[in-house]
């Protein structure tokens, strides 16, 4: 039995939906034969990400105007009662 040799490398990729990075680890199974042991991929950016970011900014702007009053003249704190929701209620509370 011969000793195992590992090779690891990174790569980038593009698909019709987006682009990302990956990592592959190869192991030799014979003198001149290699097989993929692990392959990891991570989609980092969607092709329409700019449109998604623009929509998110518009939504945040609208929510700010609503919470401050349309003309920005509302000075009182919004009153919100969260019932149940377990641990998620502690995450939602600071947003209001």
Major β-sheet profile = 3 strands, antiparallel
* Rg value: 25 Å
Q: Taking all residues together, what is the mean pLDDT? A: 76
**Helix and strand composition category:** alpha+beta
What is the strand arrangement across the widest sheet? 1-2-3
Ends apart, CA distance between termini:
65 Å
Number of helices: 2
Low-confidence runs (pLDDT<50, min 5 residues)? none
- Strand % is 25-35%
Number of strands: 3
Question: What is the H-and-E element order?
Answer: EEEHH
Helical amount among residues, as a percent range? 25-40%
Backbone shape = elongated
Question: What does the model show?
Answer:
This protein is α+β, with helices and mostly antiparallel strands. It is 25% helix and 34% strand. It contains 2 helices and 3 strands. The protein has a 3-stranded antiparallel β-sheet with strand order 1-2-3, with no helix packed on it. The radius of gyration is 25 Å and the shape is elongated. The mean pLDDT is 76.
Layout of strands and helices, then pairs:
Blueprint: E1 6-14, E2 18-28, E3 34-46, H1 49-67, H2 88-92
Antiparallel strand pairs: 1-2, 2-3
Would you kindly provide a brief summary of this structure?
The protein has helices at residues 49-67, 88-92; strands spanning 6-14, 18-28, 34-46. The protein has 96 residues and is of the alpha+beta class.
């Amino acid at each position: 039995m011969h000793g195992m040799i590992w090779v690891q490398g990174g790569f980038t990729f593009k698909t019709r939906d987006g682009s990302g990075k990956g990592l592959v680890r190869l192991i030799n199974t014979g003198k001149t034969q290699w097989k993929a042991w692990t392959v990891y991929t991570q989609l980092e950016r969607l092709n329409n990400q700019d449109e998604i970011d623009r929509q998110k900014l518009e939504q945040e702007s609208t929510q700010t105007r609503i919470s401050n009053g349309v003309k920005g003249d509302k000075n009182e704190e919004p009153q919100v009662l969260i019932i149940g929701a377990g641990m998620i209620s502690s995450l939602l509370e600071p947003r209001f």
